[in-house]
Amino acid sequence: MRETTIDITAAIPVAPAKPETDDAQLTEFVWYILLTLVSVWGISILTFGLAGLIVPALLLVPVVFVGLILITAGG
Fold it and tell me: What is the pTM of this model?
């Protein structure tokens, strides 16, 4: 019977992971915030039904309106 040995000193070197840039971290943070908001909205729909769907949507109207004005004004 033949024994098989592994030479662990001949391992392939692996480059260390590059640190994320600030842009990548900001993008990831924004996605986590959006996921959290959508999840909380879904929980409110499950808890309160139609009111849980409508009330947050009505509260978001001024936010979206201001966002549209900022986009249109180039700000």
Answer: 0.58
